[in-house]
Each structure stands twice: as C-alpha cells, then as structure tokens.
C-alpha cells in the first residue's frame, strides 16, 4: 500500500513543543543518572576501602574535569527531580491541559536552571 502522506526526514526542521523537549531531557537525565550512579558507587567503594583510597578519591575530586563531571551528574539529578515532581503534580490532576503542560514545562526549566547554577556555585 502506497502512502500519500508527506515524509519529513530532516530532524533539523521539525518543530517540537516545549513539553516534548522537557520530556526528552527528562528521559536523557534518567539515563545519565543510571550511568552516574555506577561511577559514584565505584568512587564510594574506593574511598571506603582504605585511607589511601580515600586520599586518592579526594585528590580526583579536586580536579576541574572531575568537578565538571560531578556538576553534570548533579545537574541531571536536579533536572530529573524537578521534572519528576511536575509529573507527580500532573498525576494528581493539576496542569493536564495543553496550557498547563506548557506552563509546567517552563516552570521546570526555570527552576532547574536556577538549581543547576546554584549547584555549580556550590561545587566550584
């Protein structure tokens, strides 16, 4: 069967609503957290194994690259937390309309940006 519908395969021209972007970022932040938890558990294991391990992990954590990675993991955690709270609020029946969803997405982005910047200040 031949479909007469237009097919747009150029992803750069597709305009997604803000709710789609917040949903996609929520999923990506979940994947980042999944990987990040493994990394942080390895660091925790190394730091608890001995005094030398603790000193080694402490030395790594003073590195600018590691600080950037930790900030990235903390950013993913904060965004995922804020977006998850939005989902819980929507599950309770608030903000389920199109306008409510758009407003909720804008609030998620605004609150996340503020929290991520504060986390960056705290880490650096």
TrEMBL record:
<dbReference type="InterPro" id="IPR018495">
    <property type="entry name" value="Succ_DH_cyt_bsu_CS"/>
</dbReference>
<feature type="transmembrane region" description="Helical">
    <location>
        <begin position="64"/>
        <end position="82"/>
    </location>
</feature>
<keyword id="KW-1133">Transmembrane helix</keyword>
<feature type="transmembrane region" description="Helical">
    <location>
        <begin position="21"/>
        <end position="44"/>
    </location>
</feature>
<feature type="transmembrane region" description="Helical">
    <location>
        <begin position="103"/>
        <end position="123"/>
    </location>
</feature>
<dbReference type="Pfam" id="PF01127">
    <property type="entry name" value="Sdh_cyt"/>
</dbReference>
<keyword id="KW-0408">Iron</keyword>
<keyword id="KW-0472">Membrane</keyword>
<keyword id="KW-0479">Metal-binding</keyword>
<comment type="subunit">
    <text>Part of an enzyme complex containing four subunits: a flavoprotein, an iron-sulfur protein, plus two membrane-anchoring proteins, SdhC and SdhD. The complex can form homotrimers.</text>
</comment>
<dbReference type="InterPro" id="IPR000701">
    <property type="entry name" value="SuccDH_FuR_B_TM-su"/>
</dbReference>
<comment type="function">
    <text>Membrane-anchoring subunit of succinate dehydrogenase (SDH).</text>
</comment>
<comment type="similarity">
    <text>Belongs to the cytochrome b560 family.</text>
</comment>
<keyword id="KW-0812">Transmembrane</keyword>
<keyword id="KW-0349">Heme</keyword>
<dbReference type="InterPro" id="IPR034804">
    <property type="entry name" value="SQR/QFR_C/D"/>
</dbReference>
<protein>
    <recommendedName>
        <fullName>Succinate dehydrogenase cytochrome b556 subunit</fullName>
    </recommendedName>
</protein>
<dbReference type="InterPro" id="IPR014314">
    <property type="entry name" value="Succ_DH_cytb556"/>
</dbReference>
């Amino acid at each position: 069967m031949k479909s007469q519908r237009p097919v747009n395969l150029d992803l750069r021209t597709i305009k997604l609503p803000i709710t789609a972007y917040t949903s996609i970022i929520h999923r990506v932040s979940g994947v980042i957290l999944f990987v990040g938890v493994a990394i942080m558990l390895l660091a925790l294991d190394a730091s608890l194994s001995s005094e030398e391990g603790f000193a080694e992990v402490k030395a790594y954590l003073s590195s600018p690259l590691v600080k950037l990675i930790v900030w990235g993991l903390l950013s993913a955690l904060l965004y995922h937390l804020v977006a998850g709270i939005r989902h819980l609020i929507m599950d309770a029946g608030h903000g389920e309309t199109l306008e409510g969803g758009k407003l909720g997405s804008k609030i998620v982005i605004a609150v996340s940006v503020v929290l991520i910047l504060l986390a960056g200040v705290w880490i650096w």
